[in-house]
Amino acid sequence: MLENIYVVRHGYRSNWVVDPQTGTYSTTVKSPTGIASDPALASYGVQQAVQLGEHLLQVQPPVDLIYSSPFYRCLQTLSPFTDALADRQAKIDLSALETDAPTHGRKVRVNVEPGLGEFYGLARFDHPSPASIEVLNQHFPRLHAEKSPIVVPSKNGESITQLHDRVAYCLSELIKRADADPSGPKTLLICTHAASMIAIGRALTGRMPEDETEEDFRCFTCSFSKFTRRQPGKGVEVDGDWGQEASWDPLEPDEVPDIGWRGGKGVGGGWECEINGDCSFLQGGEERGWNFEMERQRIAKLEQEETEALTKTNGKYATLENKQGVDSQDIDLHDIVTNAAQSVQGITEEAEPANGRHD
């Protein structure tokens, strides 16, 4: 049975631009997958990933099972760790072969799951999808994707409530799979994004604040969090069968089941947070943190710009949706364009020092 879950956020990434009127994404740095909104890590993010990998090789208990968002930056963040882990296992296997000893090592594999993917908010245009597993396999070894994913975020975007339910549903299924795995994994590692990392903490513990913008679970770039499973009889009482009855239907992607994780219950019987967004192993420490208050401010700013634009054009300006998605986890609000008719643009590696802190 699964006992520990480690959660990390991807490293500092390159950037893209989205036109808020058309939903067209573009970038000055070509994405390895050919998808503008699927950038690689910036050079500083690569350094962070190496430091994170060194930390993950030392954590106890060791990682048994790995899941990741399908976006390139998350898989790239895991690469230094999985490469080192594979090298270590190869040496163990070689030594065992030379001595005729049995090998008990696990094959290093990164399971790709869309349900752990990015949060884009709501918009009138379709949100971007990650690359296919066939494309990703050209860039990363050791990937695996189930034929049928647990859940796929709606292309129409999500509200903050829907994001939390999507993440909770995904986690519930992941934990079920791990518990049923005959190899008996004890520790799961997840690599994801800022908003999803916060939602994971809330879904595991069952602690959803009344104010969703409350700063509770920390999500700096390449930060590390640890959750341990509650012992029976501790925390909020739940039914013996904690698994949900409803299942996500790909024919109705917007309808993600609410599995009743709130009120302190949590998914999989509930978990406690032992380490919250640790960055002590990173040379730059805590950088580019994010919270849902920043999303609320971004939306309010866009609404104000829309109102101003309508006033200036006597109501002839084509209005924007209230909650268009622009991967706001990595956007500095001070750098959002001041005219809603222009593109909403984030920070590029060239525009700001890679170790610049997020306001």
Automatic annotation (TrEMBL):
Gene3D superfamilies: Phosphoglycerate mutase-like (3.40.50.1240). Residues 233-258 are annotated as: Disordered. It comes from the Eukaryota. InterPro entries: His_Pase_superF_clade-1, His_PPase_superfam, Phosphatase_SH3-domain. It holds the Pfam family His_Phos_1. This is Phosphoglycerate mutase-like protein. It comes from Hortaea werneckii (Black yeast).
